[in-house]
Amino acid sequence: MKLSRSTLSVALLAVLAAPAAHAEIAFDVIGGSEISFEGLVQADYNYFDNDFANLNGDAPDGKDSDNELRRAELVLKGKGPGNIDWVVGYDAKADKWLDVNAKYKLGGDANHWFQAGQFKQPNSLEELSSTKNNDFISKSLVTNTFGIARRLGAAYHYGTNDWGITASYFTRELTEHPAPTPHGPGFGFRGNWAPINEKGNILHFGLSYIDYDTFTDTVRIRARPDADLAGQRIVDTGNMTNADRQSTIGAEAMWVTGPVKVQGEYMQSTVDRYNNGNPRQSKDYDANSWYVSGLWNITGETWGYKDGVPTTPLPDSPASGMWQAGLRFDTIDLDDGRAIAGATPTAASVVDGVLGGQMDTWTVGVNWYWRSNFKFMLNYVMVDSSRYFVRTPAAPYADIPANNNVLVNRKVDDNPNILEARVQLYW
């Protein structure tokens, strides 16, 4: 960690030395490449009003709150030589590589390119948007659960400022730790179309499809309650064995009118499972999730549009900043099966299929972009969830084990509330 902290200190000094710069810090031109430096530092605080699960379970201190340096991203970018753009990014907090790739613009066209290396895969409007401009502190349930982020691979893109198609082949992540958890190879497609595309008036639609080998024969799908520091996933399928491939289809839409932005996404994911002679452990598994959100720039700014995603403006008045108010409804359904009642009222039920649980959340948020390099966020999350649990002697209501053909004793409702805050520095 000493190297990471030293590197982060240098980055902070660099941005403080140039407080007027809202974008990257230009370094030099080396070998025909214009090199610049970007950074993102985020610190989060979560307060948990627990209901059933202890959401601060990763911290055995008996407290109801947690705080953490969330990201410390350092990024070098280059334009050139020729039609080549390149990027090398590293997160000193998570100790992992971010975007590490090169892009060749065919014929010099910014909308027609080939890319190789590690990059975000072509799915999810929210995932492809810049992290520093997230509308809410936690990304949505659908993005965090089913979105495929950065993987090593190659992609081809063709389009205009109003539409585009992207095809990608990918393998593992460049950094896979703390323990090796390899991702199998896969492919993805995304198409985006903006029939209306002008400043302050944007209508966007998108479709995506991702399919990949699970690599191992076990898949587990679970989700935190829209709180990145939560130590528990309160909906969880447990380990699903005999898994072969996982595919996800997604649909997205966004509408910008003046200072208001409304967007939503839906994804359905299927785990293909091979036959092992036990029909309860061989059924293909389906899950889905979606959200819809609204954001209002109280101070009147509006959004732009580039590469099939919205772009967030700078404050019209840097001294007073840009204020935003937002509301999001989020839902996920990890149940694909049923509980068959026991022979007697006190007997446990048997699960036919997978019962990972269901969860709905409402998030209310306020954002303040101050000057050109700072952002402050405050969110309040209300959770409504339910999930089947199994009783064991060692853990009275432990997680559902791996074989999906288990005895369950009761369905548990878990409805916590969470207060979240974030301080952000970027350049």
Characterise this structure.
By secondary structure, this protein is mostly beta strands. The chain has helices at residues 2-17, 125-128, 141-146; strands spanning 25-30, 33-49, 65-79, 84-91, 96-105, 112-120, 150-159, 163-170, 186-198, 201-213, 222-223, 235-236, 243-257, 260-273, 285-297, 304-306, 309-311, 322-340, 349-370, 374-389, 407-408, 410-414, 417-426. The protein has one domain (2-426): Porin, CATH 2.40.160. The protein has three helices and 23 strands. Strand 16 (304-306) and strand 17 (309-311) form a beta hairpin. Residues 1-23 form the signal peptide. Pfam families: Porin_O_P. It comes from Lysobacter arenosi.
Counting DSSP E segments of at least 2 residues, the number of strands comes to 23
Distance between the termini: 23 Å
Q: What summary fits the major beta sheet?
A: 16 strands, antiparallel, barrel
Please name the CATH architecture: Beta Barrel
Number of H- or I-type helical stretches: 3
Question: Strands of the largest sheet, in order across it?
Answer: 2-3-4-5-6-7-8-9-10-13-14-15-18-19-20-23
Order of helices and strands: HEEEEEEHHEEEEEEEEEEEEEEEEE
Low-confidence stretches: 13-21, 392-405
Q: Bin the strand percentage.
A: over 45%
Average pLDDT reading: 86
| CATH H level, superfamily name | Porin
Helix percentage: under 10%
The value of Rg in angstroms is 23 Å
Content-based structural category: mainly beta
Silhouette: globular
User: In CATH terms, what is the fold-level topology?
Assistant: Porin
CATH class placement: Mainly Beta
Count of domains: 1
Signal peptide: 1-23
InterPro entries: Porin_dom_sf (IPR023614), Porin_O/P (IPR010870)
Protein name: Porin
Organism: Lysobacter arenosi
